[in-house]
Amino acid sequence: MCSWITDSLTDRRQFVSLGTHVSDLQHISTGSPQGCVLSPLLFSLYTNGCTSGHQSVKLLKFADDTTLIGLISDGDESAYRGEIDRLVSWCSMNNLELNSLKTVEMIVDFRKDPAPLPPVILCDSPVTSAESFRFLGTTITKKLKWEQNIRSLTKKAQQRMYFLCFSSL
């Protein structure tokens, strides 16, 4: 099995076509083919060693998405910031590139007057602070309310119902 996977990833070539234009054939020496059934599994195996080193910070991975969830108590964010640094370092050592443009931070804080936290810096860029974000198909808001997720699901269901109604005519 391992030799079959190795053979499928070794000495690969690819080209890009757009309309009538075709690029030259290029040798590919890293990664796995996009759309390949094994790619998510191979990525999960490759990133298996990337774990959280602190009990107050959880590292959640699904396919090629990674989420850090940190509990900051008494304003001490050192464990959370440390885990971010560990993740960045692990990715660098394992030749994985983090996309700071796809990275967001969402702070959930129910205190009356929450203290502002300095922005997380990733790849020399501040990470965007979000009011909400999509996590595995679910919209999570910083107030942990369901309204935005329900609106999104309702809209998607209405679009599909509309399509079903008019495609059967």
TrEMBL record:
Superkingdom, natural source: Eukaryota
Segments crossing the lipid bilayer: none
Annotated SUPFAM superfamilies: DNA/RNA polymerases (SSF56672)
One example GO MF annotation: methyltransferase activity
Domain Reverse transcriptase: 1-140
InterPro entries, sorted: AlkB_hom8_N, DNA/RNA_pol_sf, RT_dom
Protein name per the record: Reverse transcriptase domain-containing protein
Species for this entry: Hemibagrus guttatus
